[in-house]
Amino acid sequence: MGVMSSYVVLARKWRPRRFEDLIGQEHTVQALRHALEQGRIPHAFLFTGIRGIGKTTLSRLLAMCLNCGTGVTANPCGACDSCRAIVRGEHPDVFEVDAASRTKVEQMRELLDGVAYTPSLSRYKIYILDEVHMLSASSFNALLKTLEEPPTHVKFIFATTEVRKILPTILSRCQRYDLRRLDRDGLARYLAHVLDVEQIAYDQEGLAAISHAADGSVRDALSLLDQAIAHGGGRVDYTHVSGLLGLTDRQAVVALFADLCRGRLLEMLERAAYFHRDGVEPVVLLNDLLDITHQVTRELAVGVGDAAQALSEHEGLKEVWPKLGLEHLQMLYQVLLRGREDLQMARLPRQALEMLLLRAAHLRPVPPLKQLVESLQRQAGVEPGERQASPAVKKFDAPGVGQSEVAPTVHFAPKSAALEAPQAVQAPQVKRAKKQPTVLAPEPQPPVVPPDWPAVPPLQEEPTVVSPTPPATVESWEKLIEAARIKFPLLAQKMESHLSLLSYTGGSGPHDPPCMEVMIAHAFAGEPSKVHKNLMDLLVSLKLPNGVVHIRKSSDGTRPDTEAEKQKKAQDAYQNALTREVADDPLIQEIERRFEAKIIHVEPV
Ligand SMILES: [Zn+2]
Question: Where is the composition biased (Basic and acidic residues) (predicted)?
């Protein structure tokens, strides 16, 4: 039996002859029945819905109801002359017109000329206009005139896939029925019913693939089913259906999806290459991935009716399933969907697909953060929200750090090299009470640049004119540096970084001028005589011209630390203590474990 003859047989056999045979349109059928039984029959009906949903079938069925020899009925006999003529498409009073092929106004006028004459065989002259939205504006107007004052023996049945294109003046004169698109499960169940009755073997995956491809259209589904029966030698199974539809190997797509979710880049690319060798177009593979993502998301959100078809039970997905999250999947779907546009623009679609897959693989399953933090806290033996930081680390008072309360910020670096690129899933920063560690995980762009600390004032030219100031008290080298910072910022930096202090006395006032012994620590300080002059200028500007400055050069290379070096050491010690405290924190340790992260930097906030 050939494909076409098989199709004709099944399609004819399963064309609905009664309202109850229509599947998935119960609400429309009920309303129509009601109208027919009550005798409230409008001049014009309008059926809307996608192609292949049953608009034409319903139109013919309605024509039978209106013209049946047994009288106007919701249950036409199917045996009288009128009913049989309609089934054969030969009824002299029933006109089926494809509006798409007769859009011209002359054709419409010719058709409507016949409206005036009474029917020859049955009760009504019935005009079935398919794709009525295709009519030209003048044709619509001609039709409208007839609709305004139709003879009682005339009924119109309009059908359209695009109801928005129909003039409101036409719409207002029709009783409208919207036919629903069939969902995949409903369609698959219907196909299973047909095959059960026909006693044809099938598998669920094959039917699911057909109903998916039919996209809600019963006619397409039945047509595909007929072809699948012929293709599979009297049996409907996934292998033959996928061959027929040019589908990808679903198992392999699921495996690719799993690799993508787990960030197994090499396996993922190898699978993609396998599809390419198999002749699968990149866009087809991408569509299948989108489809799997959608199904997984749906299943995760609301579950599935049929456990046998659950993706969570799928061998390739079992392992990664517990780690999947709705937010991650939404993000993944968005990335893949946007990537489809890129694919169409790309000179090498296969290359674009690889780039897209690599990009998508960086989206890693991240459980909802609030939930994660709470579970971490419980594991660390702390009630959520009750945590207090230990006072082990004392505040470090450094110039440039104005905060009186110091809490550490932790930056994590992922261990996996695959994660070093910027993350599309970025956990929001968790802010809690002060002195709590602030967790940024995973950090978008490690490594983190160390903070500018201590703060360096902007470089300025030394002022040439020194305005008079009251005598200062500079009882220490540090205070002298602070005093210099205002008027001689460059000198202050030099004192801090390039000079080591050997001794310092006096400086309590004009009668106790300071006496200092300073060693050149770096060549950057300049000639000793120049340094001496600079420091003396400083003392003069501070109204302490009697101060004494001795400059030494190190003979054996040893010298005390400069102020900058002392600060650096103190800062390092503080940083180490801070890092130790954070690293020892059980909560932080748990975060490191869960995110496969390591601490690269701790800084106070
Ligand atoms: Zn009949």
Answer: 553-571
